[in-house]
Amino acid sequence: MTITELVNQIIKDGKITQNEYEGFLAKVKEDGQIDAEEKEQITRLMAMIDRKELTIEKFV
Questions:
Q1: For the stretch 3-24, what's the b/e string if a residue is b when 16 or more beta carbons lie within 10 angstroms of its beta carbon?
Q2: Cα–Cα distances in Å, from 30 out to 2, 27, 35, 44, 60?
Q3: What is the phi-psi region of residue 32: left when phi exceeds 0, alpha when psi lies from -120 to 50, beta otherwise?
Q4: pLDDT at residue 50 in the model
Q5: Residues sharing a CB contact under 8 Å with residue 7, sequence separation 6 or more, in sequence order
Q6: What's residue 38's pLDDT?
């Protein structure tokens, strides 16, 4: 699964859970470098959170 596919899956329900967040970070860190696609998806997630299109479930 690509990072873009992962983000598409995460945003489908309009929220990000702790498990999804951890999976996202693991995928980004997988090869030890952050490439252009990963940067784009990080920016995409942050923008959606800023616009309140994506909510963060409480991490416990």
A1: beebbeebbeeeebeeebeebb
A2: 11, 5, 11, 19, 24
A3: left
A4: 96
A5: 24, 41, 44, 45
A6: 96
- Tokens 């995460």: give the residue: 10
Mean pLDDT of all residues in 25-49: 95
User: What is the DSSP secondary structure assignment for residue 17, as one 8-state letter?
Assistant: -
Domain residues of the chain, as ranges? 3-56
Q: Alpha-carbon distance 48 to 52, whole Å?
A: 6
Please check the confidence at residue 59 and state whether its pLDDT lies above 70.
Answer: no
pLDDT computed for residue 58 by the predictor: 82
What would the mean pLDDT of 4-10 be, rounded to a whole number?
96
